[in-house]
Amino acid sequence: MTRRSFHRAGETERRNDLIAATLDSISEHGLEGATVRDIAARAGVTGGLIRHYFAGKDQMLQAAYREVLSSMTQTAMMAIDQVDNDPHGRLRRFIIANVSPPIADAKALSLWAAFISRVRSDDEFARIHRENYLTLLGILENLISTVLEEHARRPGPDECRRLAIAINGLIDGLWLEASLASDLFDDQSLQQIALDAVEALLGGLSLKNTPASA
Asked: pTM score, two decimals?
């Protein structure tokens, strides 16, 4: 177990440190084994200080799940923000980011697997999951719409939503492949499989590298 240095910091940073300690504990012990005592020990604080930030373990777990999902989304957004005026490159970057480390990662998968069982039994977990899912669909819808408009297609919201759902499902499946069995693939094969499949869903439109997105 790695003990974190819980230094004097602002309220937000202290709370984030506790969430990080919670995720470390869950990754090692699972949801049930991630006790408040273990989390406090990892963070180098007392249980009483934890209660200053969280009403109880359930609230800590909810915050940790929100962090796992938002971190993945933010990483993907950082990838597409590197490409300003190339709709094809932005969609390409988004797809590649979601099937590559650090998003496609054994620890990220183990955390997701630990949390997902709560989505069907805990209303707050379900809300967090749904909120993140709709955020991802919104990002994809916008990326898809701008690519199609580059080809003089004017997709309606229903078409963009259907394509976003299909592409998100494809990404989820390949994310599992990359996280569970990365040793079976070279660095580029899963990325290319994902891009080829997305191009097919978009009616054969190419997302090949451009000077802006290479």
From this structure: 0.85
